[in-house]
């Protein structure tokens, strides 16, 4: 799904106050650089257009930031929407944006840029966020049986399900379920 030049152009980010907006832009720029995602000018005709929306929610003294990114191709067709929510901690009163500190903005930028680059097939993954190699457990050593005298035979244990095995003969870890934060938009 990558565009002709593989770049993202951020058109707008609505919702946060100016100081929060400025910090988020800095965090997004850092994440884009770390993931080797090209960020283009709004005037670049071949770039994906990204519009962002953030909103602060405070309920019972706990703040959270919901965010959404709408991505449009160069023909102005929405191709994807990425959404998420980050906890911003506890607050007093209704000044929730004060709880949206640098750590919260860094999480939003990291997850957003990871989803954007994956969904659009642009950039790469920074080494720091690369998935670790799966750990393969070896079978326990066989314990020799000791004959029991006048003991009843133990009930047979249920057979364990077989692990999937790749062509290389190495067991493959199974994923139970994944809930993607990416929802493709119907036009």
From TrEMBL:
Residue ranges for the region (Disordered) are 141-169
Top-level taxon of origin: Bacteria
Under what name is this protein listed? Lipoprotein
Originating species: Xanthobacter agilis
Name the lineage: Bacteria, Pseudomonadati, Pseudomonadota, Alphaproteobacteria, Hyphomicrobiales
């Amino acid at each position: 799904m990558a565009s002709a030049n593989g770049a993202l152009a951020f058109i707008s980010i609505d919702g946060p106050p100016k100081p929060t907006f400025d910090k988020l832009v800095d965090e997004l720029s850092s994440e884009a650089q770390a993931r080797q995602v090209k960020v283009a000018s709004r005037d670049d005709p071949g770039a994906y257009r990204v519009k962002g929306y953030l909103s602060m929610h405070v309920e019972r003294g706990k703040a959270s930031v919901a965010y959404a990114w709408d991505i449009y191709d160069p023909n102005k067709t929405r191709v994807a929407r990425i959404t998420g929510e980050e906890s911003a901690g506890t607050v007093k009163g209704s000044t929730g944006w004060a709880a949206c500190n640098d750590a919260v903005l860094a999480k939003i930028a990291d997850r957003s840029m990871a989803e954007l680059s994956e969904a659009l097939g642009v950039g790469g993954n920074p080494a720091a966020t690369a998935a670790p190699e799966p750990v393969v457990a070896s079978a326990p050593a066989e314990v020799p049986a000791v004959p029991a005298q006048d003991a009843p035979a133990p009930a047979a244990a249920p057979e364990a399900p077989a692990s999937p095995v790749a062509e290389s003969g190495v067991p493959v870890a199974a994923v139970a379920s994944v809930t993607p934060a990416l929802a493709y938009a119907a036009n």
